[in-house]
Amino acid sequence: MSEKAFSPSNYLRPGLRFPFCPGCGLYTLSDTFIRAVHELGYDDFKKFCFVSGIGCSSWIPSPYYLADSIHTLHGRSIPVATSIKLLRSDLHVVVFGGDGDIVGIGIGHFVHAARRNTDIIVIMGNNMIYGMTGGQVAPTTPLKTRTTTTPYGSFEHPLDAAKLAAVAGANYSAKWTTAHQKELKECFKKALQMDGFRFVEVVTQCPTAYGRRAGFKDIREMLEWFRNNAVTVAEAERMSDKELEGKIVVGEFIQRRRLTLVEGIYAILKGGTENA
């Protein structure tokens, strides 16, 4: 825990206000992350570098965090973050992105970064829709949900990004919702103290693009839906695919220690010079 009292002003650029819609869950996501950083003893973001792509979630660090950050092309934040980590292994390199950015257009980079066990943290704000571009169906949109491109309901099963990260090779993968702030904060703290590829999916409410189309009256209903439909990883293992339809599986999907990309590269380089 930092000796200083918690104040968001230590981490945010003065005079700027987040551009999110009223009730957006990204306020909660950002606040929870900053509180986790503070509780780990960091008084500022000097030891951090943030990377983001295009989308609502990508606005979290750039330009609002008082930190070094890079705003990249849509879906390309992970390879940029990988390059930064290879050059500056002393930094916490953190990617913020949405479900479309990370597992839509950027899914190839996502899978291979997990496979390589790249030493970065990827935080995905999953609002289950393309919120910034008109409310189109996303890879994570729940089955039968109405969107601007699926007016009769989505006919595709949603992608489970947290499970995919675990299967692909991540050292750590977890999922929580904005209705689980305490668990989410501890999850961020754990991820920041590990190495390798760490993925945290945050299911977040989008009242503007998702909520009104999905039939929710207000934010309270969305948060109650998160709580009522959340099941833990352990509970999900005892449930059938039919029982899991419409549920949000939360908790830790994987936690392990594998050789990281940085460790692997430097080991090869050391071996090459010794044998030269």
Please tell me about this protein's structure.
- By secondary structure, the protein is of the alpha/beta class.
- It has one domain: 3-Layer(aba) Sandwich (Rossmann fold), CATH 3.40.50.970.
- The protein contains eleven helices and eight strands.
- It has an eight-stranded mixed beta sheet with strand order 2-1-3-4-6-5-8-7, sandwiched between helices.
- The radius of gyration is 19 Å and the shape is globular.
Task: Please render the helix and strand layout as text.
Blueprint: H1 26-39, E1 48-52, E2 68-71, H2 77-87, E3 92-98, H3 99-103, H4 107-116, E4 121-126, H5 161-168, E5 172-177, H6 181-192, E6 198-203, H7 207-214, H8 219-229, E7 230-232, H9 233-236, H10 241-244, E8 248-255, H11 261-275
Parallel strand pairs: 1-2, 1-3, 3-4, 4-6, 5-6, 7-8
Antiparallel strand pairs: 5-8
Helix pairs in contact: 1-6, 4-5
